[in-house]
Amino acid sequence: MPSYLVTGANRGIGLGISKELLKSPENFVVAAVRNLNSESIKELQSQYSQDRFAVIKIDYSDYSSIEKAAEEAAKILPNGLDYLISNAGISLQESASFETIDLKVFEEELRVNTIAPVEVIRSFLPLVRKGTAKKIALVTTIISSLGLAPNMATLAISYGATKAALNMLARKWGAVLYQEGITTVTVHPGWVDTDLGSTIKDYWAQHKPDLKPITVQQSAEDTLRVIKDAKLEENIRLYNHTGAELPW
């Protein structure tokens, strides 16, 4: 039974990925969430038994919770973890200009989007090493692309910077993990119709009016396909949810 751990699994893309995975009776899913009592998680717990679905607490703004979550996951997954999907993240000032970015808020975005995933990977790495698939997936964004940055110069500046830093960490660490047979995947899940996605709708309406958001289900299906299809390679790539390669 393939095992998956999804962070930020109580809403948005993380919830969509968890629901999509649970459709297959072969999968065991661990939802890592900040709020154990969220209605979405309670609903999943009512639908799936403990031999298919488990929940652990993890808070990307509290690094100590990450190590505790890994210890709890180790008890749930004695045979290791096949897929670690780091999805949780925040974007707190999408419309801020370079002159108006709140630096304290920027620091918090860096803590959650860039630094916390480092702790997530190293805390769960022993479990991934024991797993069969040995895949680590980081949900990032097209806004993090340095190559495409001039085309989206004013969109979610601080958020894009934190994810660009995450991409660099992934590309460097991915080359190291490659030596162990561990696959690292970075994927843009698309512009998705979520609470977070809705905050940038005005930007796209002005700059690319023909672009429409995709559904959470479509994003989840596409993202999981990219993760599953990704091959072990030293020079990892940045993928769109469609499977197309994006420029770093």
TrEMBL record:
InterPro entries xrefs: Fungal_SecMetab_SDRs, NAD(P)-bd_dom_sf, Sc_DH/Rdtase_CS, SDR_fam
Entry keywords, A to Z: NADP, Oxidoreductase
Any GO molecular function: oxidoreductase activity
Keyword Phosphoprotein: no
Family: Belongs to the short-chain dehydrogenases/reductases (SDR) family.
Gene source species: Daedalea quercina L-15889
One Pfam family from the record: adh_short
Record-level GO cellular component terms: cytoplasm
Protein name: NAD(P)-binding protein
Keyword Translocase: no
SUPFAM superfamilies: NAD(P)-binding Rossmann-fold domains (SSF51735)
